[in-house]
Structure formats: structure tokens, C-alpha cells
Amino acid sequence: MITPSIDSRDLRNALGRFATGVCVVTTRTADGQRAALTINSFCSVSLDPPLVAWYLSDRAPSLQAFSESEYFAVHVLTAEQQHLASHFARPSPDKFAILGDGVRPGLGDVPLLDGALACFECRTTTVVPFGDHVMMLGQVERFGYGAQTPLLFHAGKFMAREPVLQT
């Protein structure tokens, strides 16, 4: 049923019925500061050229860091990495402290998280505001992936799902 007037809370609840993957995006600013956050707005845009996009609230504390950085990395999380999704979703003075040696440098010295289901190292190509969010478009320069179970987000909850048997 479509509501004649849009209630933002109801709209958010309806949109939450769409299951998504869960990612952590990382970057490094020109002055060397690391930034990261949890997202579920990641999507493929093009295979040729290889482009991906994700969206960031225009009120996010890390907006400036991501908007001004030349590179970012999108880490698709596994079901076993729910703790990382929760951790990077909260404000923290040093979000990377809990990782210890579980971080290595990527393109542009962007921090890469170990153990992700997939990782896309991207050069930022376009930053465009849309409504209350900003679209970050990046060209994939390097990527890698595994075969673990993905972490999903549905109706406000983290979930893990195995493939459905084909009949």
C-alpha cells in the first residue's frame, strides 16, 4: 500500500525490508588521518569502466574526509565480522585501535581490513549531493574476494544467510 503523505519513519521501515550487504568503507586524508564507517548503501554502477557507488549522510562526521580523499576502500563483511559493522557504525576517537595488526596499507595508503568477503580499492571520481546524502562514486583499481558467508542487514537487524536451494 502506498501512503498519500510520506512519513519518514514509515518510509525508513519500508526501505528496511530490502535486504542489503554490510560494508565498512575506509580512507586516509591528505594529512594522514584514517577514517571509516559502516554502510549498507553499496552498489555496482558499471563494469566498463569498473565503477561502484555508496552513499554517506550529509551530517556524517567523516563526510569531509571521504569527500576530499583521492582513494577509498569498500570492504564487504562476512557474517563473522558483525562486531566490525557495529564498531565502525559508532563514533570513536580511533576506530582502528581494535584491529591491531588486522590492517594493511592499500592504494593511497588507505587502510585495508583483513578477512573481508570482498574488498574494492577505488579512486574517487565523483562526489555528488542528493537530498540528505552524498554519493561517492569510485573507479575500482584493485579488488579481491573470498567465499565466506556474507553479513546481511534486514529490517534493522544483522543476519547471515546461506544460499537458497534451487528447485
Automatic annotation (TrEMBL):
Residues 15-160 form the Flavin reductase like domain. Keywords: Oxidoreductase. GO terms for molecular function: FMN binding; riboflavin reductase (NADPH) activity. The keyword Oxidoreductase applies. InterPro entries: Flavin_Rdtase-like_dom (IPR002563), NADH-dep_flavin_reductase (IPR050268), Split_barrel_FMN-bd (IPR012349). The keyword Oxidoreductase applies. Belongs to the non-flavoprotein flavin reductase family. This is Flavin reductase. It comes from Cupriavidus pauculus.
